[in-house]
Specification:
The complex is a heterodimer of chains A (280) and B (240).
Chain A: H1 2-11, H2 13-38, H3 42-62, H4 66-87, H5 92-114, H6 117-125, H7 133-152, H8 154-162, H9 164-169, H10 174-195, H11 201-213, H12 219-244, H13 248-266
Helix pairs in contact in A: 1-2, 2-7, 2-10, 2-11, 2-12, 3-4, 3-5, 3-10, 3-11, 4-5, 4-10, 7-10, 11-12, 11-13, 12-13
Chain B: E1 2-10, E2 16-25, E3 29-34, H1 41-48, E4 55-60, E5 63-64, E6 72-75, H2 89-94, H3 109-121, H4 137-151, E7 155-159, H5 167-182, E8 186-190, H6 197-200, E9 203-208, E10 210-216, H7 217-220, H8 223-230
Parallel strand pairs in B: 3-8, 3-9, 6-7, 7-8
Antiparallel strand pairs in B: 1-2, 1-4, 4-5, 9-10
The structure holds adenosine-5'-triphosphate and magnesium ion (MG).
Residues 41-42, 77, 159 of chain B line the site of magnesium ion (MG).
Protein name (chain A): Manganese import system permease protein ScaB
Keywords (chain A): Membrane, Transmembrane, Transmembrane helix, Transport
Transmembrane segments (chain A): 12-38, 58-84, 96-117, 137-155, 176-193, 199-215, 222-240, 246-266
Chain lengths: 280, 240
């Protein structure tokens, strides 16, 4: 079976595209996901990955690159959520719930108008085997951009995530970094849409990161491990999905979940198998 | 010198946390800030740091405080930090250098040296590779003090640094702070334990949303002022 997969890789351009895109998406989701879970923004990540949908639809309608519409809507939704949270008694999870379900519903309708229901299905659940060269290159370019931003602003992102109070006291623009992460998250959400689909993006963002969190004691190591896990589960998921002819996106997500589950029981931080907890 | 002229802070929810506070802090000194819960102690530190909206004026060394933030090292009330964050002791201390390291640059050798020295001062050199969740409350507070040390700031603002800290750590921290004062720093500490006030602080602010008293500890720390700060319930005679 593995031989068949490798044979397929050598033979079929679409499978090469799928593999490369899946790996790149896995890496970049793993990287950004670390910040998402450490800032307690998993729900926000979920929200934004759903909220980009109308943007994608409008891009189809206007015939522009779907990244543009997606970013506009990703940012818009995070602004709306932050606004509701800060200016009313409504709690943020409620604000997030209202916003993203509305955006998702709007997106479904707009995609229905602009495209066929097959397209809708692919956007919701991913269609990695249909990735075109142009999508692949776009994914690579966007991922490089996201990772470069994180490398450049690493210490600022670290401080604003770890101790926003101190960051504020130093006069750093904590909100700027919040919105920067939201923008990067949106970019990742759009690239990951191809691989696992809108509905499951959040899994690719947080599951590898949460797994890495169980094993590492510095953010840098966590990011590298999370990226590696993201890449590996993407390859395995693609392999399983291709070999058994099942949905690749869901295979990737389930692979990640299995890795997490195993880690949960063996991790030193969890103290399930070991009595003594902390790594000395 | 830090100067607050007529500062008032009202939060969005209508709570007026500070009312017309006037304060002049001339260093080097260790100044305590005491008052009941909700009396605006934390708010006062944040106001001086320009972290919240206020009316009135704050200046540090004669310049608007927003331009002088590098001069101040601040440790917030501990509860706000996520102790399970993946960061080691050493890295946490190194964050103190961040305002001296340019954008897009990483921390250099010279800064790491400062980090090591600071860890030595607070007695945590051996634990430097540990993740912060493997520290006791007192050790973690020392890490935050070390972070202030590498900031090399002229002013230190500490919000309840002794909460959850045992006497050993507390004594280590107090000793460090007294040394810092000797070397010319000015230190503001929000504090709860009234029994230590006279030992720790040269000067004292007694706060109850408005300024009750400010001055040398020996002058202002008396029953009358304590009653006005905490209400009649308080039962310390002459500040025991
Ligand atoms: N972000 C905020 N939004 C609204 N009200 C606030 C906020 N922060 C503080 N307050 C209110 O302002 C008042 C002063 O709060 P502050 O935190 O300065 O008190 P404190 O003296 O530090 O209290 P504690 O001893 O509990 O730390 C309180 O009534 C508090 O409820
Ligand atoms: Mg307080």
């Amino acid at each position: 079976m593995a031989a068949e997969f490798i044979q397929g890789l050598l033979e079929f351009h679409f499978l090469q595209n799928a593999l490369i895109t899946a790996v790149v998406v896995g890496i970049v989701s793993g990287v950004v996901g670390c910040f998402i879970i450490l800032r307690g923004m998993s729900l926000m990540g979920d929200a934004i990955s759903h909220a980009v949908l109308p943007g994608v639809a409008i891009s189809y309608i206007l015939n522009i690159n779907f990244f543009i519409g997606a970013i506009a809507f990703g940012i818009l939704s995070s602004v709306i959520i932050t606004y509701i949270k800060e200016n009313s008694v409504i709690k943020s999870d409620t604000a997030i719930g209202i916003t993203f379900s509305s955006f998702l519903a709007l997106g479904v309708i707009l995609i229905g108008v602009a495209r066929t229901s097959t397209d809708l299905f692919h956007i919701l659940f991913g269609n990695i085997l249909a990735v075109q060269d142009s999508d692949k290159w776009m994914t690579i370019a966007v991922s490089i951009f996201v990772i470069v931003m994180i490398v450049l602003y690493f210490k600022e992102l670290l401080l604003t995530s770890f101790d926003p109070q101190m960051a504020k006291a130093l006069g750093m623009r904590v909100n700027f970094y919040h919105y920067m992460l939201m923008m990067l998250l949106t970019l990742v959400a759009v690239t990951a849409m191809q691989s696992v689909g809108t509905i499951l993006i959040v899994a690719l963002l947080i599951t590898p990161a949460a797994t890495a969190y169980l094993f590492t004691k510095t953010l840098k190591k966590m990011i590298f491990l999370s990226a590696a896990i993201g890449a590996v589960v993407s390859v395995v998921g693609l392999f399983v999905g291709y070999s058994y002819n099942i949905a690749v996106g869901s295979s990737i997500v389930l692979t990640a979940a299995v890795v997490f589950l195993i880690s949960f029981f063996v991790s030193p931080k969890q103290r399930y198998l070991k009595k003594r907890g902390h790594d000395k | 010198m830090i100067e607050c002229q007529n500062i008032s802070v009202t939060y969005n929810n209508g709570v007026q946390a500070l009312k017309k506070i006037n304060l002049r802090i001339k260093g080097p000194t260790i100044m305590g800030i005491i008052g009941p819960n909700g009396s605006g102690k934390s708010t006062l530190l944040k106001a001086i740091l320009g972290m919240i909206q206020l009316t009135g004026e704050v200046s540090i060394n004669g310049v608007s405080s927003k331009k002088m933030l590098k001069k101040v090292a601040y440790v917030a009330q501990k509860t706000l930090i996520d102790l399970s964050f993946p960061i080691t002791v050493k890295e946490c201390v190194a964050l103190g250098t961040i305002s001296n390291v340019g954008l897009f640059k990483t921390i250099r050798k010279g800064e790491w040296k400062k980090v090591e020295e600071a860890l030595e001062v607070v007695g945590l050199k051996e634990q430097q590779e540990r993740q912060i969740n493997a520290l006791s409350g007192g050790q973690f507070q020392r890490v935050l003090i070390a972070r202030c040390l590498v900031q090399d700031a002229e002013y230190l603002f500490l919000d309840e640094p002794f909460v959850g800290v045992d006497m050993v750590s507390e004594n280590i921290i107090v000793k460090i702070l007294k040394d810092l004062k000797e070397s010319g720093k000015t230190i503001l500490i929000v504090h709860h334990d009234l029994s230590k006030v006279e030992d720790y602080f040269d000067q004292l602010v007694m706060l109850n949303n408005k300024m009750i008293a400010v001055g040398k500890t020996s002058d202002v720390f008396n029953t009358n002022n304590l009653k006005r700060t905490y209400g009649e319930k308080i039962f310390i005679d002459g500040g025991e």
